[in-house]
Amino acid sequence: MKWKKYPADVLPAWVAEMDFDLAGPIKDAVREAIGMGDCGYPYPGGLGGAYAAFAGQRFGWAPDPRRVFAVPDVMTGIAEVLQAVTPHGSGIVINPPVYPPFFYRLRMTGRRVVEAPLRRDAGGRYHLDPAAVDAALAGEGAAAYLLCSPHNPTGRVWSREDLAAVAEICARRGVILLVDEIHAPLALPGARHVPFLSLDLGADLARRTFTFTSASKGWNIPGLKCALAVVAHVEAARVLEERWEALLASHLGVLATAAAFRECVPWLDAVIAQLDENRGLLAKLLAAHLPAAGYVPPEASFLAWLDCRSLGLADPAAAFLGRGRVALSPGADFGTQGRGFARLNMGTSPALLEEIVRRMSAAIPG
Fold it and tell me: 343: which residues sit within 8 A by CB, 6+ positions away?
């Protein structure tokens, strides 16, 4: 999809997948299954244990493997849980600018989107606004809070204090809490991801908390269709167990995901080193070619959120595509707060990153 959506002369820097080759053990796991003719229904088997071991090593947190569930992808898991535990027409609080499916997938489930926008400081850095979250959850019919952690598109890695504030609000308001941690494996040097369930939530909030993650971003395997729903309470686990048929992951995805967590951490570390280099290179390239574009290097993943409001473009992504032949994600897709912004995928080679910025610069009049 990344390379086929636009004409061949367009360089794609939009959808959130990287250009790096797959880790060897992931290839081997899929090849072995194909060689055996094994393409049946999935059996999660040791997937929970593989993730628990990875989480212990990476985050210092040991989830119960019995409460780790395979699901097709993060948004499908979120949508299915919301339909199970919130009333039709209820309000779901989100923090724009944020991942576009947070808007349309929630509406497809028959829920209302309630916005508690992030706060942006003078330096362009985004922050959670606990007062805004609390006010949104106090509104009539608000039933759940959907948090993106790490945050897409801003690249923020929320601190333990940030997450504790969220936990206090959700516990006090008695709402369902869902946390999208899909970019967690890609926390970059200088930041440390804190899994929400590693907090001391207490039984009441734990039974209403669902977290979702995946190997799809960290190991570049979104097409294999497997993510994880992780819970810490028997009641939350029961919600997922009862919906097993609606949440069947891909068998090949389960095998690849287990291989990623068990055997491919060195590959992940190499990718993180490259992304760390790329975020620094992007700062230099923008300073040289598009100094009016605002850019705060992300703390996680491979997505750069660019403030293009000073470039004199009504629709920055459309201008970059039309005149520069480079495709970025339009900022307005992330909410009204994203107008004048664009999201750039820097999960590529330094040479292609240079070409992306060169084409963006060529799209600016004068």
Answer: 14, 153, 303, 304, 305, 306, 328, 329, 331, 334
Cβ–Cβ < 8 Å for 219, 184: no
**CA-CA-CA-CA torsion sign (340, 125, 196, 70):** positive
Q: Exposure of 41 by Cβ count < 10 A (0-12 exposed, 13-18 middle, 19+ buried)?
A: exposed
pLDDT digits (tens, 9 = 90+) for 117-154: 999 999 999 999 999 999 999 999 999 999 999 999 99
Report the alpha-carbon distance of residue 74 to residue 335 in Å, rounded.
20
Tokens of 147: 């948090």
Residue 327 is encoded by which pair of tokens? 């495709």
If you search the block for the tokens 């936990």, which residue do you land on?
A: 167
**At a CB cut-off of 8 Å and minimum separation 6, what does 94 contact?**
102, 103, 106, 113, 114, 115, 116, 145, 146, 148
Give the global pTM: 0.97
Backbone φ and ψ for 298, nearest 5 degrees, come out as -70, 155
Structure token digits, residue 248: 């069947």
Handedness of CA 11, 294, 270, 257 (dihedral sign): negative
Q: Where are the beta strands (DSSP E) in 174-277?
A: 176-180, 209-213, 227-230
Q: Which domains does the chain have, with CATH numbers?
A: 11-21+266-362 (3.90.1150.10), 24-263 (3.40.640.10)
As a dihedral over the C-alpha atoms of residue 72, residue 170, residue 67, residue 111, rounded to 10 degrees, the angle is -30
pLDDT, tens digit, 9 for 90 and up, residues 72-118 = 999 999 999 999 999 999 999 999 999 999 999 999 999 999 999 99
Residues 351-354: contacts with CB under 8 Å, at least 24 apart? 352/11, 352/19, 353/278, 353/281, 353/282, 353/285, 354/281, 354/285
Contact 125, 146 (CB under 8 A): no
Residue in the structure block whose two tokens are 């367009």: 10
Contacts of 35 (CB under 8 A, 6+ apart): none
